[in-house]
Every structure is written in structure tokens, then in C-alpha cells.
Amino acid sequence: MGTPISRFPVPALDELPDDVRDRIVAVQEKSGFVPNVFLTLAHRPDEFRAFFAYHDALMEKDSGLSKAEREMIVVATSGANQCQYCVVAHGAILRVRARNALIADQVAVNYRKADISARQRAMLDFALKVSLHAEEVGDADFAALHEHGFSDQDVWDIGAVAAFFAMSNRLANMSSMRPNDEFFLMGRLPKS
Amino acid sequence: MGTPISRFPVPALDELPDDVRDRIVAVQEKSGFVPNVFLTLAHRPDEFRAFFAYHDALMEKDSGLSKAEREMIVVATSGANQCQYCVVAHGAILRVRARNALIADQVAVNYRKADISARQRAMLDFALKVSLHAEEVGDADFAALHEHGFSDQDVWDIGAVAAFFAMSNRLANMSSMRPNDEFFLMGRLPKS
Amino acid sequence: MGTPISRFPVPALDELPDDVRDRIVAVQEKSGFVPNVFLTLAHRPDEFRAFFAYHDALMEKDSGLSKAEREMIVVATSGANQCQYCVVAHGAILRVRARNALIADQVAVNYRKADISARQRAMLDFALKVSLHAEEVGDADFAALHEHGFSDQDVWDIGAVAAFFAMSNRLANMSSMRPNDEFFLMGRLPKS
Amino acid sequence: MGTPISRFPVPALDELPDDVRDRIVAVQEKSGFVPNVFLTLAHRPDEFRAFFAYHDALMEKDSGLSKAEREMIVVATSGANQCQYCVVAHGAILRVRARNALIADQVAVNYRKADISARQRAMLDFALKVSLHAEEVGDADFAALHEHGFSDQDVWDIGAVAAFFAMSNRLANMSSMRPNDEFFLMGRLPKS
Amino acid sequence: MGTPISRFPVPALDELPDDVRDRIVAVQEKSGFVPNVFLTLAHRPDEFRAFFAYHDALMEKDSGLSKAEREMIVVATSGANQCQYCVVAHGAILRVRARNALIADQVAVNYRKADISARQRAMLDFALKVSLHAEEVGDADFAALHEHGFSDQDVWDIGAVAAFFAMSNRLANMSSMRPNDEFFLMGRLPKS
Amino acid sequence: MGTPISRFPVPALDELPDDVRDRIVAVQEKSGFVPNVFLTLAHRPDEFRAFFAYHDALMEKDSGLSKAEREMIVVATSGANQCQYCVVAHGAILRVRARNALIADQVAVNYRKADISARQRAMLDFALKVSLHAEEVGDADFAALHEHGFSDQDVWDIGAVAAFFAMSNRLANMSSMRPNDEFFLMGRLPKS
Predict the structure, then answer these.
(1) CA dihedral C67, C70, C76, C80 (to 10 degrees)
(2) What is the predicted pLDDT for the residue at E2?
(3) Which residues from E are below 8 Å from B when comparing CB atoms?
(4) Which site among D129, D133, D135 would you substitute to test the A interface, given the most A Cβ atoms closer than 10 Å to its Cβ?
């Protein structure tokens, strides 16, 4: 109600292919609400499937980066790309995964001033370069990450997350995808 | 404790001139804590006095703009300038003054996607132009604001707030001024 | 031989999961060679599968845009992002699909000077905005496309192709993905 | 007469509060004319008072920077911000304070090519970074200034002058503040 | 003496080919000094000849633009390109040709705030676009100039002057070409 | 026929001054066609003469740079300036002079990923800096080239070619100069 969640059509659940609907129902049961990115992409089932398969391959599997670090990459690059959906939604996930109520806002506005380690700072320097100036990535960038102990597989992960959200940010901005109200407060209150 | 609030010296309260200390004590009594901008500027009493006199002239007096609207200008331009202190601290004040838990994050990331009126959108278009490309401000910008009912005095207010925080953002980024932890949650919970 | 096709590991075919290998063999049989993007992504099978599923959903299915028009979007945005692999490989595909030996170089360097229709010019204006300034996309951009007869579904297609290759360009630049020599001449000679 | 000195109202002297009028009369007696910045800000007495209090705290007091060096910062950053009033008016003051007829035009157009010391070059590198990319200021910038013998207090002065004129440039561009004709020739002729 | 006029070799007059030396002697007799651009280019006689032949074809012949207008284009675009030699030297020529002591500084810093006609403003808008974003020049830019009465031949002149000084600015910045001291004051004093 | 080769008048050969016509006839006899840059500039004979005299002085004479290297500079900087004529026409010449069918497309899109030597990479780094940020050229840039064995005369050549094509790119984009169809395939096929 009120502000639409997307400029594009949002199908009703019962209009969706079974696998798409099942995924949406599953996330609702786990999270208590359906993040709007699922509803915004649902009008294109093939793209929906590929998007979330890609997302899960990058964000959910084992990696040399922690899940919180991957969310830092999302939040920092999405801030640079002025993507409201991604900053708000992944900011919430970052707070939860890092168990830190402050980190998401710090990273979204200016990661150079955030309470992060030197290693994480190097990670975000590279992620931002991939996001904003990938054409200039070269040997010196890889060397800087190696100095902080990142392997080439880690470098791929950093760059691939930045690249995936370069796409995601553009989809969200193009469609005026609206972050759910639930995300804004999530992870900000101490667990009782 | 831990992360410093500024790269520069932070004097103890009893080292400060009386009027500076009195101002700091007054804000602490009102807010329950001392926003770090007061402590960061205190090592330069003359600049402290001028900064807050200017701030209050723009942000506290009567104006054709509501106080919440003036805070929107601060948050939107500070987001564009990647100023962590100003986005977090004035984001809190914006939530309180607008009685809206979502507006600050929306405006900070991308005001074009925020839940604001067409009039406020025009106000922020101008504020961002003053903040980022003031050299190009011209007749068409004034005409666009007049169409939305802004007077020339209102235009001055919009531009002057954007200009003042162009300074403030740079001071905060230069000094790595740290937003107080208290700001992050302020205004996010419904009043019971 | 000589210059590597990627900074990252390129597995041998017999090290790959069956479905990944099958896809690579199929493209080789159809095209006569294996485009290096298949080999560059193969070390990450899950990402490989999602990438090509997404690619095919956008580039191969029916759409209000012709396949040549979708390739124009790829070439124009990849030129702006200085992505050598995508400009060269998709330039070749564009020449083939448009049956036009000149169009790819024209669009890659400056689409505003290319031999395209006013409708295609509007399509590329939007694609470039999504690619470079998605945060500013708004009502006026949709209206401009509607004036040229594009439906909202067409607008999604334009923006989604631009967004997907925003990702792809960054992966290619990050990995120094090398375009196959075969692409450079493809589609340049008249069919005898 | 002819071209207005501001887009905004310019009050007559006898309409002004006593302290504002006194300040204006004093500057007129000292300089022989009233710089237009005094007249442009006079319609907002509280802002006028804070602006000049801040200006004087930064530009007139003792500092590790000479007054001429502080004017260099104003001229270089105002050139980058395309602020006609500040370049012309402070260019005049710089010529007078540095007793150098050439320096202001050199610094305004490209300080990297000006007849200044390596120390002053480092000072202006930092000032320009604060003016144009303050979000990126970090440890390396402080270290570079320390190498040239600047103390942290000097660094504050450099950054604070750059920040204050980031505000001033925007006020002048927003209001189309016109430099007085007197400034253009001031300091260009040898003292007889 | 002191600061060199170029990073590159400056030949003695008697080392130069006759025609190059004759040109230099002629300009010295006319102006009372040798503008450093002649000395800086003299080590490459063929480039010297082509440069001044081109310059004279654009700047000295009859045209729909006055000579002062052509100098305005030089000063405005050279300001945008931060070319100290061209702003200072051609600023002097502009003052002389326009018989206006203020116009050059105004145009160099921000032509949008200069005392020029609407027609001249349109002329400079186009010149700056050619200088900074020529890739975007299109039908609308030509239409805007036609509305102000410029013919296509005038448009060529505006663009060709902007293009020639795009080259000249880069040569001067690459070689650290130093403007002669004489230029700074030229045209600033009323004729007695 | 069809798309015009220029927005501006293209004179018939028999309307041209003898020397201009002779030059055009000579190039046609040598190349088998008349590159459109000759026809586009012909309506301004004095500018035509100066342009080609300058071009030949830089591109045809002996130099520490090979002719292929000079064409690399043209292609790389013209790609950055989105100049279709120069990328296509000089891309063809580069392929011929370097006897390399791939190099032009590589350099045009992203020279950092091209099959060039470290020395050529340094050459293009400098050329791009002159083309895009000449105002920042300084000692460190010269030192970097000297390390690769370039003399100061070589540095001049690199910068002067970049500067000349900064002009040429702007003329071509302003006039919508169309590359001849012949250029697109030239140098792409192995010599039999």
C-alpha cells in the first residue's frame, strides 16, 4: 500500500511458477517478510532464477571472506552507486551478520572512516575500484591484496561480489525498487 | 573509548573558555550526551563560536523551510559528500524532526527515491546543485524553485544550508570526526 | 598460447562438471571455437551456470527488442566501460546479427554518431544512463522511451541487458579476460 | 551601476543593525570601498556576523601559515570551484600580501605551475584535496604535510581555510556575487 | 631569468631557420617582447610553422565572430583546461581587443557570471562543450546557436577555435610554458 | 551517398585551390580513396593546409617513436575521446603499420589490456594523461618515461601527438565526420 515497490508489474503469488513461489514462501517463513527484491524480479521467472542462483553462489557458499565481509562489499559499493534498496536491505544483513549495529551506516557513507581492519579496508578499496573503475584494475591492485593475505580466489570473490551488485544496483535504481520497512531497524537493537 | 573522535586534540572541559564549556554543558543536559562536533571544534574557540553561531542562524531560526526540511538538505548533501558524521548525526535529527524513522536513510542514499513531496524534491535538486556544481547555478534553477512556491528568501535558505554543510562535511572528513554511537538508533523506535 | 586468457585458473575440460563441459563442447561445435568467457568462468561452476542462464534469459529469448538491438546495447555500454572482451566478442555477434560490417565499431566508439534509427538512439541513451548513472533514472527517461513506442517490458529489457553487462564488464576487466582472435574479423566480410 | 552585485536584496546602510553598519563603514574607511561580500550578506545580519567572525578567526589571527599563504589557499580552491568573486577579490589581497603582482593569476589558473615553494605546493595539494575530495583525506595526506614541516595545527589551518571557502564559493556562485571593479587592478602596479 | 620558460630546449635566435627567426623578430618589433609560445615551439620548426599558420587562419582572418569574441573562447576554454599560459596571454589580448579591463578575469574564472551578451553566452556554452564533451555535440547544440543568429560558418569558427586551443592548452601544460611577465598587466590600465 | 560525411559543406574538387586539390588527388592515387578528413576540411583551405602540415610534421617524419607507436597514441586517445573517425581511420593505419590485425581494437577499447610492451604502456599512460588531464602533468610523469628510455624529444613527440589529436577529435566530433567504409576492414586480412 502507499508507495509502490517497483515501477514494473508485481505478480500475485498464485500467478507465479511453482519454484519461484516456493522460494518466496520459504524466505517469508524464514525472515517473517518477503524482501521486495523477490517480488520485483518475479515477473521475469528466468531472470529471477538466475539472479538468485548467482546471488547464492557468491553470498552463501564457503569462501575466504566471511559472510559479513561480503555484505560489507555490497553495502560499500551500493552506497557509491546510490542504490537505496541495496544499502538498506544489505545494511540490515550486515548488521546481523557482523553483530554490529554501527558498521553498516559507517560503511555505506564512507568506508574509509569505518571501524574496520586494515585488511578489510584493502578489500573495500579493491571492491570500489571494480565497481567504479574496473577498466583500471591491474597488477598493483592484486599485489596490494596479496600483501594483506588474500589469495587469488579471495580476490575473485571480492571482485565478483562487487560486479554482481553493480548489476543489482542498476536493476534496483531502474525499477525504483523499494526497501521493505522492516530492514531499516533490523540488527540495530541489542539481543535481549 | 577505543576509536578516537578526531585526528586533532580534544581538550578537557575544564581547559575550555567559559562560554564554550557552557555551551557544551547545555547541549549535554538537553541531549543526554555531547555530540562530537562540539568536542572536535573546541580546540579552536573562535572557530567554535562562529561555527555554532552560523549553524544556529541557519538551522534554528524561523524560515519558510521547516526544520525537518533543512535537515533533509543536510542529510542529502552530506551523503553526496560522503561525510559520515553529518549523515549519521543529522540523519538522527531528521528522523526526530520529521517523526519518520525511514526518511533519513532514504535521503542519504538517493533522495530521488525518497518518500518526499515534489516540492521537497525540487528543494533537494537545488541543494545538491549548490553542493556539487554551484558554478552552474543560474536563472533556470531559481525559476524551478519559484514554480514550487519557494520565495527568494527560501532559495537563500536552501543554498545557505547546502553551503554551510559543504564546509562542515569537509571539516568532518579532514578531522575524521566520529559520530557518537547514540545517533545511530535515535528516532528509529516508535514513541511508546 | 602466449598471452593468457585470464589472470585466474583455467581448468582443463576433463576437470569440469559434466554440464559445464557439455555446454562448452556445444558452443565449440556450433561456433568452431570456445569463446574465452566460457573458459574464464569455468573455475567457478555455480557462477558459470548462473551467468549463462542469466545471459540466455536476456539475450536469447523473444523480446520487443531484436537480438541485434540487444547486442547494440552490449557493445555501446561495454565501450563506455572500456571492456575489451565484451566490445570485441559482442561486436562480432552484433555484426553477424545485424548483417552489418560497420555498426559494431561505430556503436562501440560513439553511438551518437552511428548509423542507427532515432528509436535505437533513444534505446542506447537509456542503456548508457543505466550503465553510468542509474541513480538518476526517473520518469522523464521512461517517457522518452514510451514516445518511441517502447513498452515497459521493453524498457526492462534495455535496462536489464545494460545491468547484466555492467556486471560482465567488471568481471572481464578484473580478470583481464582476453577476446579470442577469431572475434576480431567475424562478420566483417561479405558472405560469398 | 548596471550589473547588480547580487541576485538577492541589498539593504541600504541605514536599514542595517548598528554593528553590521559599523563593520561596513570601517572596512570602507580602511579600503576606500566596500567589498561586495559585505553588502551581499547584509540582508541576513546573523549570518553576516557569523561569516565574518569565522573569516577573521581563520584569516586574520596568528598561524603557522603566513597571511599570504592563507590567501593562496583561497585563490587556488576558489579557482577550482569557479568562484569569480573569491578569485578576483582574494587574488587582489594575495597580490598585496605577497607583494607579488603575478602570483594570484598563476595560482588561480593552475597552482602546479605557479612560482611557489615545494612546501607551498604541498600545502595547496592538501587544500585542493579538502576542497574537491575531502572524503578521501587520510593518513598519507597528513604524512606528506608533516614531511614539509607542517604541524597538525598547520594542517587544520590549511583544511579549515579550504573548507570555509568551499562554503563561501557556493554562497557567491548561488547569489551571483559580483567582485568590485576595484579588485581587478589592486596589487598589480609597483609601489612608487 | 630564473624560472625557465619551458621544460624543453629553447634555441638561440641565431640557431633558427630564417623564416622562424623572422617571425619572432617581427612579433618582437610589434609587441615589444617575444611571447614565450614562439620560443617554446621554436625547437621544432615544422611544428612552429604549422601551429602559427593554423593560429592565424583561425584568429586573424575575417569571420562572423569579432576578434574579441574569438579571444573569449580561448580564455574560457583555457580556464577550464587550467592552462596558465593561455589564460594569461590571451587574457591580455582579450582585454586589449575588447577594450575592457575586467572581461578576461571574469571569463577565465566562470564565463556564466561574466558581463557578456546572451549571444556570447551561447557561443561560450558551445565552445566549452566542444572543449570538454565534444563527443556529445549534436543537433540541439547547433539549433541553440542558430537561434542566436550564428551561421554554420560561425559554428565552425567557434568549434575550431575551441579545438585548436584544446591542443594548445595541452602543449603548454605538457611543457610548463611560462607566460611572459608583460601579459599580466597588459590592457588593465585606461589609455591616457 | 546516404549518410553525409560532414555537417558542414563539402566542396567539389574543381572548386578547390590547386594545392588543396592536388593533395587530395595524390592521396586518392596512393590509397585508392579519399579519406573523409580531407573532404571535411577542404571548405577551409587555410585550415586544411595548416592541419595537414602539422599532421605530417608529427606523424610522418623521423622520430624516436615508430610510426606504429604514434598511431597507437592516436587510437588510444581518440578512443578515450569517443572520436569515431579517428579510431576507425587511424585504427586501420595502425593495423597496417604494426602489421597486426588485433592491436587497434585492443588499444581503442582499453590500452591497459592490449598486447603491447611495458615501454609502450608507459608511452600511452603519458599520452592519455596529456589528453585527459594535461593540467596535472609534472616531474613524475617525465621520470616515468625516462625510466623506459624515452628522451625528452620522445616525450615531446608523445605529448604533441596526443595534443594534436585532442584538436582533431574535437573537429571530427563537432562536424560528425564520417569514417570511410574502406577503413573498417583495412589491415585485418593476412597478406596473401
Answers:
(1) -140
(2) 72
(3) 110, 112
(4) D135
Q: How confident is the model at residue F9 (pLDDT cuts 50, 70, 90)?
A: very high
Question: Cα(F142)–Cα(F152) distance, rounded to whole angstroms?
Answer: 8
Contact predicate E161/E58, CB 8 Å: yes
Using CA atoms, how far residue F173 sits from C116, E58, F177, in Å, is 17, 18, 7
Q: Which of A46, A82, A167 is opposite residue C166, by nearest beta carbon?
A: A167
Query: How many other C-beta atoms can be found within 10 angstroms of the C-beta atom of residue A161?
Result: 26
Nearest by CB to B152, from D8, D49, D156: name it. D8
A106-152 pLDDT per residue, tens: 999 999 999 999 999 999 999 999 999 999 999 999 999 999 999 99
Compare CB distances from A184 to B3, B110, B188 and report the shortest one's residue.
B188
Do residues F108 and F78 lie in contact, with contact meaning Cβ atoms separated by under 8 Å?
Answer: yes
How wide is the angle at C-alpha D122 spanned by C-alphas D118 and D128, nearest 5°? 140
- Which cell numbers in the block locate residue D20? 553590521
**Distance, in angstroms, between F138 CA and closest chain D CA?**
8
Provide the total of helices (H) and of strands (E) in chain E, helices listed first: 10, 0
C-alpha distances in Å from residue C83, one per residue of A53, A58, A129 = 25, 22, 14
Rounded Cα gap, residues C178 and C174, in angstroms: 11
Instruction: Determine contact, residues D9/D175, Cβ cutoff 8 Å.
Output: no
Per-residue pLDDT tens digits of chain E, which is 192 residues long: 578 999 999 999 999 999 999 999 999 999 999 999 999 999 999 999 999 999 999 999 999 999 999 999 999 999 999 999 999 999 999 999 999 999 999 999 999 999 999 999 999 999 999 999 999 999 999 999 999 999 999 999 999 999 999 999 999 999 999 999 999 999 999 875
**E110 to chain B: which residues are within 8 Å by CB?**
135
Best CA proximity match to A89, nearest among A71, A114, A77, A113: A71
CA contacts within 13 A on the Cβ side of B119: 12
- Cell 527484491 found at: A37
Chains D and B touch (3+ CB pairs under 8 A): yes
pLDDT at D191: 72
Residue A170's closest CA among D161, B7, C159?
Answer: C159
| Residues in contact with A1: Cβ distance below 8 Å, sequence separation at least 6, in sequence order | none
Work out the average pLDDT over F18-47: 97
0.80 exceeded by the pTM?
yes
What CA–CA distance (Å, rounded) separates E181 from A103?
55
**Which of A47, A130, A134 is opposite residue C160, by nearest beta carbon?**
A47
Tell me whether residues F101 and C188 touch, CB distance under 8 A.
no
Contact C50 A47 (CB under 8 A): no
CA distance A160 to D37: 52
Amino acid at F4: P
